[in-house]
Give the backbone structure.
Amino acid sequence: MNSSGRFLPALTFMFGLLLLPQAAYAEDLLRMTEHPLAWVCIVIFVLAYVAVMAEEQLKLKKSKPVIMAAGLIWAIIAWIATGEGVSHDELHKAVMHDLEEYAAMFLFLLVAMTYINAMEERQVFDSLRSWLIRKGFSFRQLFWVTGILAFFISPIADNLTTALLMGAVIMSVGKGNPQFVTLAMINVVVAANAGGAFSPFGDITTLMVWQAGKVEFTEFFVLFLPAVVNFMVPALIMNSFIETSCPVALEDHAKIRVGGVRVCLLFLVTIGLAISFENFLGLPPFMGMMTGLSLLMFFAYFLQLQGLTSTRKVSPMREIGGDPDVFKRVSLAEWDTLLFFFGVIFSVGGLRYLGYLEVVSEEMYLGIGATWTNIVAGVISAVVDNIPVMFAILGMSPEMDTFQWLLITLTAGVGGSLLSVGSAAGVALMGASKGSYTFMTHLRWSWAIALGYAASIWVHFLVNG
Protein backbone atom coordinates (compact mmCIF):
# COMPACT_ATOMS: atom_id res chain seq x y z
CA MET A 1 0.00 0.00 0.00
CA ASN A 2 2.72 2.46 -0.95
CA SER A 3 0.59 4.32 -3.47
CA SER A 4 -2.87 5.80 -3.52
CA GLY A 5 -3.81 3.49 -6.40
CA ARG A 6 -3.27 0.44 -4.20
CA PHE A 7 -4.59 1.96 -1.03
CA LEU A 8 -7.94 3.09 -2.43
CA PRO A 9 -9.30 -0.37 -3.42
CA ALA A 10 -8.40 -1.93 -0.06
CA LEU A 11 -9.80 0.97 1.93
CA THR A 12 -13.05 1.18 0.04
CA PHE A 13 -14.09 -2.38 0.81
CA MET A 14 -14.78 -0.98 4.28
CA PHE A 15 -17.50 1.16 2.76
CA GLY A 16 -20.86 -0.05 1.49
CA LEU A 17 -24.59 0.05 1.74
CA LEU A 18 -27.02 -2.75 2.45
CA LEU A 19 -29.43 -3.82 -0.28
CA LEU A 20 -28.96 -0.85 -2.57
CA PRO A 21 -31.05 -1.29 -5.73
CA GLN A 22 -29.00 -1.18 -8.89
CA ALA A 23 -29.84 2.33 -9.99
CA ALA A 24 -31.38 3.73 -6.83
CA TYR A 25 -30.65 7.40 -6.20
CA ALA A 26 -27.80 7.42 -8.74
CA GLU A 27 -29.07 10.77 -10.00
CA ASP A 28 -29.48 12.12 -6.46
CA LEU A 29 -25.92 11.60 -5.23
CA LEU A 30 -24.24 14.68 -3.83
CA ARG A 31 -20.91 13.83 -5.58
CA MET A 32 -18.66 15.91 -3.35
CA THR A 33 -15.76 13.48 -3.04
CA GLU A 34 -13.15 16.24 -3.29
CA HIS A 35 -14.63 18.41 -0.56
CA PRO A 36 -12.33 18.62 2.52
CA LEU A 37 -15.20 17.81 4.87
CA ALA A 38 -16.03 14.75 2.77
CA TRP A 39 -12.56 13.41 3.51
CA VAL A 40 -13.24 14.05 7.19
CA CYS A 41 -16.21 11.69 6.85
CA ILE A 42 -13.89 8.96 5.58
CA VAL A 43 -11.49 9.52 8.48
CA ILE A 44 -14.36 9.32 10.97
CA PHE A 45 -15.56 6.01 9.55
CA VAL A 46 -12.08 4.49 9.39
CA LEU A 47 -11.40 5.46 13.01
CA ALA A 48 -14.74 4.02 14.07
CA TYR A 49 -14.01 0.76 12.32
CA VAL A 50 -10.54 0.55 13.85
CA ALA A 51 -12.30 0.77 17.21
CA VAL A 52 -14.61 -2.05 16.10
CA MET A 53 -11.66 -4.29 15.20
CA ALA A 54 -10.07 -3.51 18.57
CA GLU A 55 -13.28 -4.35 20.43
CA GLU A 56 -11.69 -7.05 22.61
CA GLN A 57 -8.72 -4.87 23.59
CA LEU A 58 -10.74 -1.73 24.23
CA LYS A 59 -13.61 -3.55 25.99
CA LEU A 60 -15.85 -1.28 23.92
CA LYS A 61 -18.92 -2.77 22.26
CA LYS A 62 -18.73 -2.47 18.49
CA SER A 63 -22.04 -0.62 18.12
CA LYS A 64 -20.88 2.46 20.01
CA PRO A 65 -18.23 3.87 17.65
CA VAL A 66 -20.18 3.21 14.44
CA ILE A 67 -23.38 4.79 15.75
CA MET A 68 -21.38 7.87 16.73
CA ALA A 69 -19.74 7.84 13.29
CA ALA A 70 -23.13 7.65 11.56
CA GLY A 71 -24.40 10.71 13.40
CA LEU A 72 -21.25 12.74 12.73
CA ILE A 73 -21.07 11.76 9.06
CA TRP A 74 -24.65 12.73 8.32
CA ALA A 75 -24.27 15.98 10.28
CA ILE A 76 -21.27 16.88 8.10
CA ILE A 77 -23.16 15.85 4.96
CA ALA A 78 -26.05 18.09 5.95
CA TRP A 79 -23.61 21.00 6.40
CA ILE A 80 -22.04 20.37 2.97
CA ALA A 81 -25.42 19.86 1.27
CA THR A 82 -26.87 23.06 2.72
CA GLY A 83 -23.94 24.98 1.31
CA GLU A 84 -24.61 23.42 -2.09
CA GLY A 85 -28.27 24.38 -2.06
CA VAL A 86 -29.66 20.90 -1.40
CA SER A 87 -33.08 21.03 0.23
CA HIS A 88 -33.96 19.40 3.53
CA ASP A 89 -36.49 17.24 1.70
CA GLU A 90 -33.77 15.72 -0.48
CA LEU A 91 -31.60 14.98 2.55
CA HIS A 92 -34.57 13.46 4.32
CA LYS A 93 -35.25 11.24 1.30
CA ALA A 94 -31.66 9.94 1.27
CA VAL A 95 -31.70 9.12 4.98
CA MET A 96 -35.11 7.45 4.83
CA HIS A 97 -33.90 5.19 2.02
CA ASP A 98 -31.21 3.84 4.36
CA LEU A 99 -33.76 3.54 7.16
CA GLU A 100 -36.06 1.46 4.96
CA GLU A 101 -33.31 -1.02 4.17
CA TYR A 102 -32.12 -1.19 7.77
CA ALA A 103 -35.64 -1.79 9.06
CA ALA A 104 -36.13 -4.75 6.71
CA MET A 105 -32.88 -6.37 7.84
CA PHE A 106 -33.51 -5.52 11.50
CA LEU A 107 -36.92 -7.20 11.62
CA PHE A 108 -35.67 -10.27 9.78
CA LEU A 109 -32.71 -10.74 12.10
CA LEU A 110 -34.71 -9.96 15.22
CA VAL A 111 -37.09 -12.84 14.50
CA ALA A 112 -34.24 -15.23 13.72
CA MET A 113 -32.41 -14.29 16.93
CA THR A 114 -35.60 -14.68 18.95
CA TYR A 115 -36.12 -18.20 17.63
CA ILE A 116 -32.50 -19.11 18.38
CA ASN A 117 -32.90 -17.78 21.94
CA ALA A 118 -36.14 -19.72 22.32
CA MET A 119 -34.38 -22.93 21.24
CA GLU A 120 -31.58 -22.22 23.70
CA GLU A 121 -34.12 -21.68 26.48
CA ARG A 122 -35.78 -25.00 25.59
CA GLN A 123 -32.29 -26.58 25.88
CA VAL A 124 -32.23 -27.79 22.27
CA PHE A 125 -28.53 -27.00 21.90
CA ASP A 126 -27.65 -28.24 25.39
CA SER A 127 -29.30 -31.55 24.57
CA LEU A 128 -27.24 -31.92 21.39
CA ARG A 129 -24.04 -31.16 23.30
CA SER A 130 -24.99 -33.68 26.00
CA TRP A 131 -25.58 -36.39 23.40
CA LEU A 132 -22.20 -35.80 21.78
CA ILE A 133 -20.36 -35.95 25.08
CA ARG A 134 -22.04 -39.21 26.13
CA LYS A 135 -21.33 -41.03 22.84
CA GLY A 136 -17.70 -41.71 23.74
CA PHE A 137 -16.16 -40.58 20.44
CA SER A 138 -12.36 -40.50 20.00
CA PHE A 139 -10.62 -37.15 19.59
CA ARG A 140 -10.34 -37.66 15.86
CA GLN A 141 -14.01 -38.66 15.60
CA LEU A 142 -15.02 -35.60 17.63
CA PHE A 143 -12.94 -33.44 15.32
CA TRP A 144 -15.02 -34.64 12.37
CA VAL A 145 -18.37 -34.83 14.16
CA THR A 146 -18.16 -31.25 15.47
CA GLY A 147 -16.94 -30.00 12.10
CA ILE A 148 -19.65 -31.76 10.09
CA LEU A 149 -22.37 -30.68 12.52
CA ALA A 150 -21.11 -27.09 12.35
CA PHE A 151 -21.25 -27.26 8.55
CA PHE A 152 -24.87 -28.43 8.49
CA ILE A 153 -26.23 -26.47 11.47
CA SER A 154 -24.91 -23.05 10.39
CA PRO A 155 -27.10 -22.87 7.24
CA ILE A 156 -30.16 -23.03 9.50
CA ALA A 157 -28.98 -21.17 12.58
CA ASP A 158 -25.93 -18.94 12.08
CA ASN A 159 -22.18 -19.34 12.31
CA LEU A 160 -21.91 -17.63 15.70
CA THR A 161 -24.47 -19.83 17.50
CA THR A 162 -23.11 -22.92 15.77
CA ALA A 163 -19.53 -22.18 16.73
CA LEU A 164 -20.42 -21.55 20.37
CA LEU A 165 -22.39 -24.80 20.54
CA MET A 166 -19.58 -26.91 19.04
CA GLY A 167 -17.02 -24.96 21.05
CA ALA A 168 -18.77 -25.96 24.27
CA VAL A 169 -18.49 -29.62 23.26
CA ILE A 170 -14.82 -29.25 22.34
CA MET A 171 -13.97 -27.56 25.63
CA SER A 172 -15.90 -30.18 27.60
CA VAL A 173 -14.13 -33.19 26.11
CA GLY A 174 -10.75 -31.64 25.27
CA LYS A 175 -9.52 -30.74 28.74
CA GLY A 176 -5.81 -31.51 28.99
CA ASN A 177 -5.40 -31.75 25.22
CA PRO A 178 -4.69 -28.24 23.90
CA GLN A 179 -3.65 -29.54 20.46
CA PHE A 180 -7.07 -31.08 19.96
CA VAL A 181 -8.87 -27.99 21.23
CA THR A 182 -6.93 -25.70 18.89
CA LEU A 183 -7.41 -27.78 15.75
CA ALA A 184 -11.04 -28.60 16.52
CA MET A 185 -11.80 -24.91 17.09
CA ILE A 186 -10.19 -23.95 13.77
CA ASN A 187 -12.13 -26.73 12.06
CA VAL A 188 -15.42 -25.50 13.53
CA VAL A 189 -14.75 -21.90 12.43
CA VAL A 190 -14.01 -23.00 8.87
CA ALA A 191 -16.97 -25.39 8.79
CA ALA A 192 -19.45 -22.88 10.21
CA ASN A 193 -18.42 -20.18 7.74
CA ALA A 194 -18.44 -22.61 4.81
CA GLY A 195 -21.83 -24.04 5.77
CA GLY A 196 -23.35 -20.58 5.93
CA ALA A 197 -22.16 -19.70 2.43
CA PHE A 198 -24.59 -21.92 0.51
CA SER A 199 -27.76 -20.95 2.38
CA PRO A 200 -29.69 -17.66 2.23
CA PHE A 201 -30.06 -17.95 6.03
CA GLY A 202 -26.56 -19.15 6.85
CA ASP A 203 -24.85 -15.78 7.06
CA ILE A 204 -25.72 -12.10 7.11
CA THR A 205 -24.00 -11.66 3.76
CA THR A 206 -26.00 -14.36 1.99
CA LEU A 207 -29.18 -12.95 3.48
CA MET A 208 -28.27 -9.50 2.17
CA VAL A 209 -27.59 -10.81 -1.34
CA TRP A 210 -30.90 -12.68 -1.38
CA GLN A 211 -32.95 -9.78 -0.06
CA ALA A 212 -31.26 -7.47 -2.56
CA GLY A 213 -32.65 -9.68 -5.34
CA LYS A 214 -29.21 -10.45 -6.79
CA VAL A 215 -29.60 -14.23 -6.41
CA GLU A 216 -32.78 -16.29 -6.21
CA PHE A 217 -33.38 -18.43 -3.11
CA THR A 218 -32.72 -21.80 -4.76
CA GLU A 219 -29.67 -20.57 -6.68
CA PHE A 220 -27.58 -20.35 -3.49
CA PHE A 221 -27.52 -24.13 -3.19
CA VAL A 222 -25.20 -24.50 -6.19
CA LEU A 223 -22.50 -23.27 -3.79
CA PHE A 224 -22.83 -26.49 -1.77
CA LEU A 225 -19.93 -28.30 -3.46
CA PRO A 226 -17.55 -25.31 -3.30
CA ALA A 227 -18.47 -24.92 0.38
CA VAL A 228 -17.79 -28.61 1.05
CA VAL A 229 -14.37 -28.31 -0.59
CA ASN A 230 -13.60 -25.18 1.45
CA PHE A 231 -14.30 -27.15 4.64
CA MET A 232 -12.75 -30.47 3.65
CA VAL A 233 -9.33 -29.34 2.37
CA PRO A 234 -8.03 -27.85 5.66
CA ALA A 235 -9.88 -30.52 7.68
CA LEU A 236 -8.09 -33.33 5.85
CA ILE A 237 -4.76 -31.61 6.39
CA MET A 238 -5.35 -31.10 10.12
CA ASN A 239 -6.83 -34.58 10.58
CA SER A 240 -3.42 -36.30 10.73
CA PHE A 241 -2.41 -34.11 13.67
CA ILE A 242 -5.34 -35.25 15.84
CA GLU A 243 -4.90 -38.09 18.35
CA THR A 244 -6.92 -41.28 17.91
CA SER A 245 -7.29 -41.85 21.66
CA CYS A 246 -10.55 -41.21 23.51
CA PRO A 247 -11.22 -38.45 26.04
CA VAL A 248 -12.29 -39.22 29.58
CA ALA A 249 -15.99 -40.14 29.68
CA LEU A 250 -18.23 -37.36 30.99
CA GLU A 251 -21.73 -37.49 32.41
CA ASP A 252 -24.02 -34.89 30.92
CA HIS A 253 -27.77 -35.47 30.80
CA ALA A 254 -29.30 -32.25 29.51
CA LYS A 255 -32.68 -32.88 27.88
CA ILE A 256 -34.86 -30.83 25.58
CA ARG A 257 -37.57 -29.07 27.55
CA VAL A 258 -41.25 -29.39 26.76
CA GLY A 259 -41.99 -27.77 23.42
CA GLY A 260 -38.38 -27.60 22.24
CA VAL A 261 -38.91 -29.79 19.19
CA ARG A 262 -42.02 -27.85 18.25
CA VAL A 263 -40.09 -24.58 18.48
CA CYS A 264 -37.58 -26.03 15.98
CA LEU A 265 -40.44 -27.01 13.67
CA LEU A 266 -41.99 -23.56 13.97
CA PHE A 267 -38.64 -22.03 13.01
CA LEU A 268 -38.62 -24.14 9.85
CA VAL A 269 -42.21 -23.06 9.15
CA THR A 270 -41.15 -19.43 9.65
CA ILE A 271 -38.33 -19.81 7.15
CA GLY A 272 -40.83 -21.33 4.74
CA LEU A 273 -43.14 -18.35 5.24
CA ALA A 274 -40.31 -15.91 4.49
CA ILE A 275 -39.55 -17.76 1.26
CA SER A 276 -43.22 -18.00 0.28
CA PHE A 277 -43.97 -14.34 0.99
CA GLU A 278 -41.07 -13.32 -1.24
CA ASN A 279 -41.48 -15.82 -4.08
CA PHE A 280 -45.25 -16.17 -4.34
CA LEU A 281 -46.71 -12.98 -2.88
CA GLY A 282 -44.04 -10.48 -3.88
CA LEU A 283 -43.70 -9.28 -0.29
CA PRO A 284 -40.41 -8.67 1.54
CA PRO A 285 -39.14 -11.76 3.45
CA PHE A 286 -39.35 -9.97 6.79
CA MET A 287 -43.16 -10.04 6.52
CA GLY A 288 -43.03 -13.84 6.50
CA MET A 289 -40.59 -13.81 9.41
CA MET A 290 -42.81 -11.53 11.49
CA THR A 291 -45.79 -13.79 10.75
CA GLY A 292 -43.69 -16.70 11.95
CA LEU A 293 -42.85 -14.77 15.11
CA SER A 294 -46.56 -14.55 15.86
CA LEU A 295 -46.71 -18.36 15.68
CA LEU A 296 -43.97 -18.57 18.31
CA MET A 297 -45.81 -16.05 20.48
CA PHE A 298 -49.02 -18.06 20.34
CA PHE A 299 -47.10 -21.25 21.08
CA ALA A 300 -45.45 -19.64 24.11
CA TYR A 301 -48.93 -18.58 25.24
CA PHE A 302 -50.06 -22.19 24.86
CA LEU A 303 -47.14 -23.40 27.00
CA GLN A 304 -47.98 -20.87 29.70
CA LEU A 305 -51.61 -21.98 29.74
CA GLN A 306 -50.47 -25.58 29.94
CA GLY A 307 -48.43 -24.77 33.02
CA LEU A 308 -51.13 -22.68 34.68
CA THR A 309 -53.80 -25.34 34.20
CA SER A 310 -51.61 -28.22 35.34
CA THR A 311 -52.93 -30.26 38.25
CA ARG A 312 -49.47 -31.40 39.29
CA LYS A 313 -48.23 -29.94 42.56
CA VAL A 314 -45.33 -27.97 41.09
CA SER A 315 -45.05 -24.38 40.03
CA PRO A 316 -46.15 -23.59 36.49
CA MET A 317 -42.64 -22.59 35.42
CA ARG A 318 -41.14 -25.79 36.72
CA GLU A 319 -43.89 -27.73 35.01
CA ILE A 320 -42.84 -26.50 31.58
CA GLY A 321 -39.18 -26.08 32.44
CA GLY A 322 -38.37 -22.39 32.31
CA ASP A 323 -39.92 -19.19 31.02
CA PRO A 324 -41.08 -19.36 27.40
CA ASP A 325 -42.15 -15.70 27.29
CA VAL A 326 -41.31 -14.51 23.76
CA PHE A 327 -40.85 -10.91 24.88
CA LYS A 328 -38.05 -12.06 27.17
CA ARG A 329 -36.52 -13.97 24.26
CA VAL A 330 -36.65 -10.78 22.17
CA SER A 331 -34.90 -8.89 24.95
CA LEU A 332 -32.04 -11.41 24.76
CA ALA A 333 -31.39 -10.72 21.07
CA GLU A 334 -27.88 -9.59 20.19
CA TRP A 335 -28.69 -5.88 20.37
CA ASP A 336 -25.07 -4.83 20.02
CA THR A 337 -24.99 -6.56 16.63
CA LEU A 338 -28.32 -5.09 15.52
CA LEU A 339 -27.22 -1.58 16.47
CA PHE A 340 -23.83 -2.17 14.85
CA PHE A 341 -25.70 -2.76 11.58
CA PHE A 342 -27.46 0.55 12.07
CA GLY A 343 -24.18 2.40 12.47
CA VAL A 344 -22.52 0.72 9.48
CA ILE A 345 -25.51 1.09 7.15
CA PHE A 346 -25.97 4.78 7.89
CA SER A 347 -22.25 5.53 7.90
CA VAL A 348 -21.60 3.94 4.54
CA GLY A 349 -24.92 5.25 3.29
CA GLY A 350 -23.52 8.72 3.90
CA LEU A 351 -20.32 7.87 2.04
CA ARG A 352 -22.41 6.52 -0.83
CA TYR A 353 -24.38 9.77 -0.91
CA LEU A 354 -21.12 11.70 -1.15
CA GLY A 355 -20.27 9.65 -4.27
CA TYR A 356 -17.35 7.53 -3.06
CA LEU A 357 -18.79 4.13 -3.93
CA GLU A 358 -19.51 5.27 -7.47
CA VAL A 359 -15.84 6.16 -7.88
CA VAL A 360 -14.61 2.92 -6.35
CA SER A 361 -16.90 0.80 -8.52
CA GLU A 362 -15.20 2.25 -11.58
CA GLU A 363 -11.73 1.74 -10.04
CA MET A 364 -12.27 -1.93 -9.18
CA TYR A 365 -14.95 -3.59 -11.25
CA LEU A 366 -14.20 -1.72 -14.47
CA GLY A 367 -10.47 -1.65 -13.78
CA ILE A 368 -9.39 -5.18 -12.82
CA GLY A 369 -12.66 -6.99 -13.52
CA ALA A 370 -15.35 -8.68 -11.45
CA THR A 371 -13.60 -12.02 -10.89
CA TRP A 372 -10.40 -10.71 -9.33
CA THR A 373 -12.26 -8.00 -7.43
CA ASN A 374 -14.57 -10.60 -5.88
CA ILE A 375 -11.66 -12.88 -4.98
CA VAL A 376 -9.71 -10.03 -3.38
CA ALA A 377 -12.85 -8.96 -1.52
CA GLY A 378 -12.99 -12.37 0.16
CA VAL A 379 -9.39 -12.05 1.35
CA ILE A 380 -10.04 -8.55 2.67
CA SER A 381 -13.05 -9.87 4.58
CA ALA A 382 -10.64 -11.79 6.82
CA VAL A 383 -9.38 -8.43 8.10
CA VAL A 384 -12.33 -6.09 7.68
CA ASP A 385 -15.15 -8.61 8.32
CA ASN A 386 -17.48 -9.83 5.60
CA ILE A 387 -20.46 -7.64 6.53
CA PRO A 388 -18.98 -4.26 5.53
CA VAL A 389 -17.35 -5.98 2.54
CA MET A 390 -20.76 -7.10 1.29
CA PHE A 391 -22.20 -3.68 2.14
CA ALA A 392 -19.57 -2.24 -0.18
CA ILE A 393 -20.27 -4.62 -3.05
CA LEU A 394 -24.02 -4.09 -2.86
CA GLY A 395 -23.47 -0.36 -2.51
CA MET A 396 -21.36 -0.30 -5.67
CA SER A 397 -24.00 -2.51 -7.36
CA PRO A 398 -21.74 -3.47 -10.27
CA GLU A 399 -23.14 -5.07 -13.41
CA MET A 400 -22.59 -8.78 -12.69
CA ASP A 401 -24.33 -11.98 -13.69
CA THR A 402 -25.57 -14.57 -11.20
CA PHE A 403 -22.31 -16.53 -11.38
CA GLN A 404 -20.32 -13.51 -10.18
CA TRP A 405 -22.83 -12.66 -7.45
CA LEU A 406 -22.50 -16.23 -6.25
CA LEU A 407 -18.71 -15.88 -6.36
CA ILE A 408 -18.70 -12.85 -4.08
CA THR A 409 -21.23 -14.59 -1.84
CA LEU A 410 -18.84 -17.54 -1.55
CA THR A 411 -15.64 -15.55 -1.07
CA ALA A 412 -17.11 -13.08 1.41
CA GLY A 413 -18.62 -15.96 3.36
CA VAL A 414 -15.55 -18.20 3.62
CA GLY A 415 -12.79 -15.60 3.36
CA GLY A 416 -13.27 -14.68 7.01
CA SER A 417 -11.91 -18.10 7.98
CA LEU A 418 -8.40 -17.08 6.94
CA LEU A 419 -7.93 -15.27 10.26
CA SER A 420 -9.51 -15.85 13.65
CA VAL A 421 -10.74 -12.24 13.72
CA GLY A 422 -12.32 -12.54 10.26
CA SER A 423 -15.68 -13.85 11.43
CA ALA A 424 -18.00 -13.75 14.43
CA ALA A 425 -17.42 -17.48 14.90
CA GLY A 426 -13.67 -17.04 15.31
CA VAL A 427 -13.94 -14.08 17.64
CA ALA A 428 -16.48 -15.89 19.82
CA LEU A 429 -14.36 -19.04 20.12
CA MET A 430 -11.27 -17.05 21.05
CA GLY A 431 -13.22 -15.79 24.04
CA ALA A 432 -14.66 -19.21 24.90
CA SER A 433 -11.45 -21.25 24.60
CA LYS A 434 -9.66 -19.71 27.60
CA GLY A 435 -6.41 -19.25 25.71
CA SER A 436 -6.33 -22.57 23.81
CA TYR A 437 -7.48 -20.99 20.57
CA THR A 438 -5.87 -17.65 19.75
CA PHE A 439 -5.07 -15.42 16.81
CA MET A 440 -1.59 -16.92 16.49
CA THR A 441 -2.65 -20.58 16.78
CA HIS A 442 -5.17 -19.96 14.00
CA LEU A 443 -2.61 -18.09 11.91
CA ARG A 444 -0.29 -21.13 11.91
CA TRP A 445 -2.93 -23.00 9.90
CA SER A 446 -4.00 -20.13 7.64
CA TRP A 447 -1.99 -21.66 4.78
CA ALA A 448 -4.19 -24.77 4.90
CA ILE A 449 -7.33 -22.65 5.05
CA ALA A 450 -6.03 -20.60 2.09
CA LEU A 451 -5.68 -23.81 0.08
CA GLY A 452 -9.33 -24.57 0.83
CA TYR A 453 -10.26 -21.00 -0.15
CA ALA A 454 -8.51 -21.33 -3.53
CA ALA A 455 -9.90 -24.83 -4.10
CA SER A 456 -13.48 -23.71 -3.41
CA ILE A 457 -13.17 -20.91 -5.99
CA TRP A 458 -11.77 -23.39 -8.53
CA VAL A 459 -14.68 -25.77 -7.90
CA HIS A 460 -17.17 -22.91 -8.30
CA PHE A 461 -15.70 -22.13 -11.73
CA LEU A 462 -15.60 -25.84 -12.60
CA VAL A 463 -19.15 -26.68 -11.52
CA ASN A 464 -21.06 -23.43 -11.95
CA GLY A 465 -19.02 -21.51 -14.53
